[in-house]
Write a structure and sequence with these properties.
The protein is of the alpha+beta class. About 50% of the residues lie in helices and about 20% in strands. The strands form 2 sheets. It has an 8-stranded mixed beta sheet with strand order 2-3-1-5-4-9-10-11. A 3-stranded antiparallel beta sheet has the order 6-7-8, covered by helices on one side.
């Protein structure tokens, strides 16, 4: 069937216009000007963390504006190619090239449109992700390590810096738990849809009888605390233990008690940190993650109260949100969005954008229905 190029191009322009209305190029230019002024300050790097935040935000704003402008130009290019083909009597090669470019632009607009759906209070933040092995013994621990690799590979694909904050190794294989930080604009909003229980079905490589095993892992995603959030934690509410960092099999990898385990007594929330070299650095990192979890807890309590006052409490997320089936067939399926793929090896190699985009759209629809 021949493509209706005028209709397709008109649709691209409408999508681009709706995205522009949300992104607001004028506001973006003003933000770039303000951040550029801050980035040019001679004392910028006196505070390395603040400087990193300024340069990261500036780079993101510049790339967003450039991406929006480039897509507008590409839509014009497609239209020009179609006109050129028509002038040449319907040149098939040029039309084929226009069709290919149409698909590329359409896909890029879809990805940019998903970003406009991230409008939550903390969506712009960096993300702290924790993966914990659940039911399933050694298979669950191995599954937790598979999920860690999946997310790290996804970050590599997008050039997102990652810092592993804490790792607890299982005795036989895999991980009991791991916590890592993803530094990127909208990292929390993007990855938050990955939170929940993940299920793996496969022939267990740890079962000498080759039986099928079902195992589970929990993924928690929280926004990283910022200095402006003012989450005060009295020292009397903290219990801090120090210990030596350990590697696989419980092997000590540090000769000093530099690792820190911080417990928030009122809530029972526990945070361990062993990535940094000194106890002071690990304590500061643990406090930031603890503050982040308390911030999310406070917001969840506020949301629950609002739903209670509205007279309706609706569970949006089930205990099991995604299944990874490797036997007797190969399929990864999100149980909320119904999005599924058969290329399981690709998924475990970090190809999860389709799941994330479907999850963001699903969540937005859920929010709209509840309004």
């Amino acid at each position: 069937m021949a493509i209706d190029f005028p209709a397709e191009i008109a649709q691209l322009r409408r999508t681009h216009a709706s995205i522009s209305a949300v992104v607001d190029p004028d506001a973006l230019r003003a933000q770039i000007a303000e951040l550029s002024e801050k980035a040019a300050a001679p004392d910028l790097w006196d505070d390395a963390a603040a400087a990193q935040a300024v340069t990261s935000k500036l780079s993101h704003a510049q790339s967003e504006l450039e991406r929006l402008n480039n897509l507008a130009g590409q839509i014009d290019d497609v239209e020009a190619m179609v006109e050129l083909a028509e002038e040449a009597g319907g040149d098939a090669d040029v039309l084929a090239e226009a069709e290919s470019m149409l698909g590329v632009v359409s896909k890029a607009l879809e990805e940019l449109e998903v970003r406009t759906l991230l409008s939550g209070e903390y969506d712009e933040r960096n993300a702290v992700v924790t993966i914990r092995a659940g039911a399933g013994g050694v298979d669950a621990a191995d599954f937790a390590e598979m999920l860690l690799r999946m997310y790290l590979r996804w970050c590599e694909r997008h050039d997102y810096p990652v810092k592993v904050l804490d790792t607890s190794y299982a005795e036989e294989a895999g991980l009991k738990s791991v916590t890592f930080e993803v530094t990127a604009p909208y990292a929390y909003g993007t990855l938050s849809v990955e939170g929940g229980t993940h299920r793996l079905v496969r022939i267990s490589p740890f079962d000498n009888q080759g039986r099928r095993q079902t195992s589970f892992a929990a993924v928690e995603v929280i926004p990283l605390i910022e200095s402006t959030d003012h989450i005060e934690i009295p020292e009397s509410e903290l219990k801090v233990d120090v210990f030596r960092s350990s590697g696989p099999g419980g092997q000590s990898v540090n000769t000093t008690d530099s690792a820190v385990r911080m417990t928030h007594i009122p809530t029972g929330i526990v945070v361990s940190m062993q990535d940094e070299k000194s106890q002071i650095q690990n304590r500061a990192a643990a406090l930031r993650v603890l503050q982040s979890r308390l911030l999310l807890l406070r917001k969840a309590e506020e949301d629950a109260k609002k739903k209670e006052l509205a007279g309706e409490i609706k569970a949006s997320w089930g205990d099991q949100m995604r299944s990874y089936v490797l036997h007797p067939y190969q399929m990864v399926k999100d149980l909320r969005t119904e999005f599924e793929v058969g290329n399981t090896s690709g998924v475990f190699d970090g190809d999860i954008d389709g799941f994330i985009e479907a999850g963001i759209r699903w969540r937005k629809n859920q929010e709209t229905e509840q309004e």
